[in-house]
Design goal:
Elements (H helix, E strand, L loop, with lengths): L6 E4 L6 H4 L10 H6 L8 E6 L2 E9 L9 E7 L5 H20 L7 E6 L7 H16 L3 E12 L12 E3 L4 H11 L6 H6 L5 H11 L12 E4 L5 E9 L4 E8 L8 H14 L5 E7 L3 H9 L3 E10 L2
Parallel strand pairs: 4-5
Antiparallel strand pairs: 1-2, 2-3, 3-4, 5-12, 6-11, 6-12, 7-8, 8-9, 9-10
Length: 314
């Protein structure tokens, strides 16, 4: 394909959403609401056209009110294009959009894509995923982590409390960030490990609290600190609603209490909090390499329905 005949530009406004949706992805149903709530902007949504044919598209996402995008979470190419053309037009679209949106500082947002749990086993699916990864790689992105996306129907039974642990809400932000700081010792989470290469554990915990937990609009009364009967903290769980789904946003056991089965009881408490709200399902995620946490979710009835591939320009 002669890429000189390809027009690359942002959307002129939400009136072009039908054009944008000529290619499809799992997040399409959320685009209208995301625009309404400020999670997306037309200038963060780009297309590559040849005439009136949509060849490729991309979109960034952020939290409402943010002045910079947080994630590149839509990157699609017309899979009917010949192989070399798919990559060339995808690269041109991404390079042009990155230059306009990221500015001279370069890209900081990660690229993330949801894929089937067995995406490597189906040739057509694997090719589509690897094409998109290759486009990102051509602009300097590298694989960062692969994550399990988990789902649990709320009607599934939740084990009753064993009595080994008591649960209460965190006393204040300082207590919770203090616990978050302590659980980073020995963490298997890829993002946390990366944070610890550039900041202290306390700084990483405070940043995660400010950037993620503080933004949830669901009640903080849902949050739970797990303690021994004498009041000593063992761990914590953060049930929340992220604006799309009820989720287990964060769960952890303090280093000195790991290996004693407490994670099952803490996860059961977080699951119980959300189930008591009458939610239709509960979502969670964990790194593919965090085997102990993945096994804990499996024991609690959470099933992997997708994976998430994350690439980074960092």
């Amino acid at each position: 394909m002669n890429t000189e005949l390809v027009t690359v530009r942002p959307l002129t406004g939400r009136a072009e959403l039908d054009l944008f949706r000529r290619l499809s992805y799992a997040l399409d149903a959320e685009l209208d609401t995301d625009l309404d709530e400020g999670r997306r902007r037309p200038e963060w949504m780009w297309i590559a056209l040849r005439g009136d044919r949509l060849l490729a598209r991309l979109a960034w996402w952020s939290r409402p009110g943010a002045d910079r995008p947080l994630l590149l979470d839509v990157l699609d190419i017309d899979d009917a294009l010949p192989g070399a053309d798919r990559l060339d037009v995808g690269e041109r679209l991404l390079r042009t959009a990155l230059s306009a949106v990221s500015g001279p500082e370069g890209p900081t947002a990660e690229y993330t894509r949801f894929v089937p749990p067995d995406w490597r086993d189906t040739p057509a699916v694997r090719r589509a995923v690897e094409d998109r990864m290759a486009v990102a790689a051509r602009t300097g992105a590298r694989p960062f982590v692969e994550r399990l996306r988990l789902d649990r129907p709320s009607g599934a039974p939740v084990p009753p409390p064993t009595g080994r642990l008591a649960f209460r809400t965190p006393r204040d932000e300082g207590e919770l960030t203090g616990l978050m700081t302590r659980v980073l010792d020995g963490t298997l989470d890829a993002h946390s490990l990366h944070d610890l290469t550039t900041m202290s554990a306390q700084e990483a915990a405070e940043a995660q609290y400010a950037d993620e937990l503080a933004g949830y609009r669901s009640p903080r009364e849902w949050w739970r600190v797990a303690t021994l009967p004498d009041g000593e903290p063992v761990g914590f769980v953060i049930p929340a609603h992220n604006g799309y789904n009820p989720i287990i946003a964060y769960i952890a056991v303090l280093p000195e209490h790991r290996g004693k089965g407490y994670v099952d009881e803490i996860l059961a408490e977080g699951t119980r909090v959300l189930t008591d709200q009458g939610v239709p399902w509960i979502r969670a995620s964990t790194d593919l390499g965090n085997v102990p946490m993945a096994e804990a979710f499996a024991r609690a009835g959470y099933h992997a329905f997708e994976r998430e591939i994350v690439m980074s320009w960092g």
